[in-house]
Amino acid sequence: MSPSAVSSLRVAAVPLVSRPGDSLHNVARIVDCLALAAQHEIVLAVFPETCISGYASLTKLHRAELDALAEPLDGPSVSAVADAVERFGVAAGVGFIERAADGQLFNSYAVCLPGGARHCHRKLHAFEHRRISSGDRFTVFDTAWGVRVGILIGGDNCLVENMRMTALMGATLLLAPHCGDGVNRSGDRSAQPVSVEQSIRYRLPARAADNGMFVVFSEGVEAAGPERPGGAGMIVDPCGRVLAESGAQDALVSASLETGLIDGSAGRQWLLARRPELYGLLTRSGHHAADFEPRSVSSRGGIAISFAQVRRDRPIR
């Protein structure tokens, strides 16, 4: 932690419901939420993945439709958000489809800070559309609050290594924007291969505790209704405790982060106990059974074990 770190900062997750393909409307909603956040003395508002484009699922979009959604980092949408950040003094993280200088498209997330700084993460495991490329680096940066911020988008958070790498790069606050397609009556999900319940209830709190990090999760959907509930927001502390959560669409899910919890968390102590020389297999693909020393098994002293499966609806005879 930096010597200038604040002892507490108030952040919010905003489970925004976006309008598909209507960036003007979606940016206007983001600006309204930033104005509200300023009234609640929030310093950082975390909006969902692809909240500017508004599409939860990009798979079926034609090339021209996808191209129409894409903007550079300094394009009109992110710039409008950056202007609102300056006006209200609230930092904002927003998801958009980025067009890079070489024409490649990315599922990206931009964090605009007061003072004009912008930090952009490109999703590492992009599956949304065959024309969207995957990013090739982690994103971690310092802030005036004394906390170091990392970003992982949607499915990036499903791999243990991604959050661990972000923590090893010094991140103490992770932004985890997500985009879901809601749940239909059959319970199927179409936007993400991993259910939001798993991500919220099991993965993120556990990963926060493992790495001694605060996590701000913000999920949005492209439409809400009886068959598609709104998104969700959740804020977790470095001990894995949920500080705040809600499923109310466009609501500010806010909490004060007590930064003193970071250094004293078990996760930070576990990071110090790592033995990198043992982890070479993590950098290789496939299974390497030859790398493991086989254990000799003796029949002496063996215990015979048998199993029986019993149906509960039939009496045992």
TrEMBL record:
Q: Which domain of life is it from?
A: Bacteria
- All copies of the CN hydrolase domain together span 9-259
Please give the Pfam families that the UniProt record associates with this protein.
Answer: CN_hydrolase (PF00795)
Going by the UniProt record, its keywords in alphabetical order are: Hydrolase
The record's annotation in SUPFAM superfamilies points to: Carbon-nitrogen hydrolase
Is Chaperone among this UniProt entry's keywords?
no
Query: Annotated Gene Ontology MF terms?
Result: hydrolase activity, acting on carbon-nitrogen (but not peptide) bonds, in linear amides
Question: What is the protein named?
Answer: Carbon-nitrogen hydrolase
- Which source organism? Paraburkholderia xenovorans (strain LB400)
Q: What is the lineage of its organism?
A: Bacteria, Pseudomonadati, Pseudomonadota, Betaproteobacteria, Burkholderiales
